């Protein structure tokens, strides 16, 4: 598997099929890309206000919903003022 | 199966095989079409094309929801992999 | 399933990805071609266009049988529209969300790729 092993215990940003973005610490995964995220937070983008951070806690995300898993540069992430970032939410993945 | 039988057309993908090295037209989901020279394909209809021209057919809607006349966006790409799940049809291009 | 790609010369790589143990069926074999093709693109810069219109450029670090893709040193095509990836170093893309992968023409030996495709198609019919 084009593995995400190196992401374990790192801060990751998961993009779901419906376009939602969830950030958390990757605690585990399996070959179906089922993921366990600790201290996860949804980042809700919108065009009329900054990014809304919605705490979700410990999540198990079913692999079928996962579009992308990205490793966040924690240092860089902490320098970004997300209250000022405005953007369209990501689109859904449709077939 | 002997070689003679292998060389003829006996299943749909054989038509695709005959197009290797030739320009093909591919209709994709999402109102997209591509033409390009076919270099590889597989059983999922994943394909690799070069000298690609992609056409996207877009229908914009006005603020009150009325469709505007369709417009076309074109893009040229030198080498492209197209994932098979988006493929609707493959055709040898009419010269 | 052990697939060994000989790294000797670029030209032999498509063909040498032949599977020594025939434990799975031919249709399975025919899907290995594209996987092998992506393996030859390892360490090249590619652009992956997702089905949600997000385009991500980066260096291909690995690929698997599902065509899941691992990209390093990434950037998005339109950061104004997609600031969502600002703090991202590298990412793992689910194969199923890929619409296109764009690459440089010089990364691909088209003649060998066509030969490999013919060969795999023929194998698959046996």
UniProtKB/TrEMBL annotation, chain A:
Gene Ontology MF term list: mRNA binding
Any single biological process term in GO: mRNA splicing, via spliceosome
Keyword vocabulary terms for this entry: mRNA processing, mRNA splicing, Nucleus, Ribonucleoprotein, RNA-binding, Spliceosome
Localization: Nucleus
Pfam family, one: LSM
GO cellular component: precatalytic spliceosome; U4/U6 x U5 tri-snRNP complex; U6 snRNP
InterPro entries in alphabetical order: Lsm8, LSM_dom_sf, PTHR15588, Sm, Sm_dom_euk/arc
Domain Sm: 1-75
Keyword RNA-binding: yes
Transmembrane helix keyword on record: no
Function: Plays role in pre-mRNA splicing as component of the U4/U6-U5 tri-snRNP complex that is involved in spliceosome assembly, and as component of the precatalytic spliceosome (spliceosome B complex). The heptameric LSM2-8 complex binds specifically to the 3'-terminal U-tract of U6 snRNA.
Family: Belongs to the snRNP Sm proteins family.
Assembly, per entry: LSm subunits form a heteromer with a doughnut shape.
PANTHER family (UniProt xref): LSM1, U6 SNRNA-ASSOCIATED SM-LIKE PROTEIN LSM8
Protein name, as recorded: LSM2-LSM8 complex subunit LSM8
Biological classification of the source: Eukaryota, Fungi, Dikarya, Basidiomycota, Agaricomycotina
Automatic annotation (TrEMBL), chain B:
Domain Sm: 11-95
Location in or out of the cell: Nucleus
Biological function: Binds specifically to the 3'-terminal U-tract of U6 snRNA.
Database matches in Gene3D superfamilies: 2.30.30.100
Stated name of the protein: LSM complex subunit LSM3
Alphabetized InterPro entries for the sequence: Lsm3, LSM_dom_sf, Sm, Sm-like_LSM3, Sm_dom_euk/arc
UniProt-recorded Gene Ontology molecular function terms: RNA binding
A GO CC term assigned to this protein in UniProt: U6 snRNP
Binding partners and assembly: LSm subunits form a heteromer with a doughnut shape.
UniProt cross-references to SMART domains, sorted A to Z: Sm
Gene name for this UniProt entry: LSM3
Origin species: Kwoniella bestiolae CBS 10118
Biological process according to GO: mRNA splicing, via spliceosome
Highest rank taxon of the organism: Eukaryota
Keywords: mRNA processing, mRNA splicing, Nucleus, Ribonucleoprotein, RNA-binding, Spliceosome
Record-stated family: Belongs to the snRNP Sm proteins family.
PROSITE patterns tied to this protein: SM
From TrEMBL, chain C:
The keyword Transcription is annotated on this UniProt entry: no
GO CC annotation: catalytic step 2 spliceosome; Lsm1-7-Pat1 complex; P-body; precatalytic spliceosome; U4/U6 x U5 tri-snRNP complex; U6 snRNP
CDD domains tied to this protein: LSm2
InterPro entries, alphabetized: LSM_dom_sf, Sm, Sm_dom_euk/arc, U6_snRNA_Lsm2
PROSITE patterns: SM (PS52002)
One annotated GO molecular function: RNA binding
Ranges where the Sm domain occurs: 33-107
Subcellular location: Nucleus
A Pfam short name: LSM
Keywords, sorted A to Z: mRNA processing, mRNA splicing, Nucleus, Ribonucleoprotein, RNA-binding, Spliceosome
GO biological process: mRNA splicing, via spliceosome
SUPFAM superfamilies assigned: Sm-like ribonucleoproteins
Family note: Belongs to the snRNP Sm proteins family.
Official protein name in the record: U6 snRNA-associated Sm-like protein LSm2
